[in-house]
Amino acid sequence: MCVMEKTMLDIATIRKDFPILNRKVNGNPLVYFDNAATSQTPKQVIDTIVDYYSRYNANIHRGVHALAQEATEAYEGGRKKIQQFFNAAHAHEIIFTSGTTHSINLVANGFTAFVGKGDEILVSAMEHHSNIVPWQMLCERTGAVLKVIPMDQDGVLVMEEYENLLSDKTKLVVCNHVSNALGTINPIEEIIPMAHEVGAAVLVDGAQSSPHLKVDVQRLDVDFYTASAHKLYGPTGIGMLYGKQEWLKKLPPYQGGGEMIAEVTFAKTTYADLPYKFEAGTPNICGGIAFGAAIDYLNSIGLEAIDRYEHELLAYATEKLSRIEGMQFYGKAKQKTAVISFNIRGVHPYDMGTLLDKMGIAVRTGHHCAQPVMDFFQIPGTIRASFSFYNTKEEIDRFAEALERARQMLV
Amino acid sequence: MSIPEIQKEIVEEFSMFDDWMQRYEYMIELGKSLPLIKEEYKTEDHIIKGCQSKVWVHAELEGDELVFTADSDAIITKGIIAILIRAFSHQKPRDIIEADTKFIDEIGLKEHLSPTRANGLVSMIKQLKLYAVAYQTQLN
Fold it and tell me: InterPro entries this protein is in (chain B) (predicted)?
């Protein structure tokens, strides 16, 4: 009974933390189902941002004055919170970036030194463009070859094919933990050791998983893991790259500038230690602090309770939506997060998105920056509803009614 | 009828609707009456790159007037382009070049005019005008 009480969320109280949820859109109360694109920000995080600029805005690390000290402590405190959240062995294995795209580019750029002609990089068939293009660019620079781990009709990676693709030529395996277009949770706890057996490093894009799943980078033994704060209730423009210490030491710096140096003369520059080697220039100080506040907020609710409630919403919505005529779901993996990607026969996703917006419902329509996934299913795009712990079954009821109303207009 | 007269007529038609639903229902109806582009013209050359829906437009001169045909895979987009074509088709290229498009705003479709909206309406208008410029050069 005690356990039950612990995992029950008080949604009405939680919703009060998110001022934006009181908004009206086109005269209707907002229903926000675009959480996989960006999550909303609780007032605890907004207050942190206001507090930073109101009380202790200063440049960090170098200043000896009080404000600089406070800002440095808070920023490095944010890094420690992130370290604990992902259970990294060291705080300096957490590199602040502008987000997952930046994190991936940082690694892809660094790997120019480690791959060459004929080497292979394996990428999954369900990647976001940001986990495809940087690797294509790396291949162009180095002559390495990009190979694709295929998926099946349910949107699940074909592990036998993955095994066949692995060889001593494989230098890197990259895949997302959770697909943004389909919600599939990929079996990274199998993917990672298989790659390590052939001596390949693994980068996992955690943009879609980190708000929903408990991630332990040490247990996973993953080499690189990425996250974006704005998908886990923090602000935009800040994210992180986790890298194993030995990899981050080997990887050359990405950008040159202040903060990342030990000593500069015109003859030679030596680089700073981790993590600063990768953090050139004045960083997003407020962002780093607010990222930490977002993690505090997530921890106060608890990932386990979040996961349980979001799955309840997913099951409820899947059942409700399956009653709509012509409903076609994409991504039928048994293991998935609270994302429903779908089309309705005879309806273009753009038309549906436009009419839903008129009814105050925010969903994402289109290719979700994953065109290869859309090509696989031979569709122009999907309608994607992605749920968060502040969403309710009542909102799903409104969504289902709105879908039916729009369907009747469009078919 | 001149372009401003047609635009005024469209604005009057849309002013009869009280809510968004009726407006969109009417647009969907208009979409169904769009003068369709010939299948042979549905090529990459005729496509207007919008982010989410495909739009094909073709133009040809009939005498000194420009005639547009089009199609889209999304019905609301079809409705929007039908409204544009109704205003611009069978008009002289010079008049098309000089026409403004404020009427889109007046009929309550302002949100579609935002250059950041991923439906390519701004690109559509630009493409119709580009056709007019090209044919005007030919007429000169």
Answer: Fe-S_metab-assoc_dom
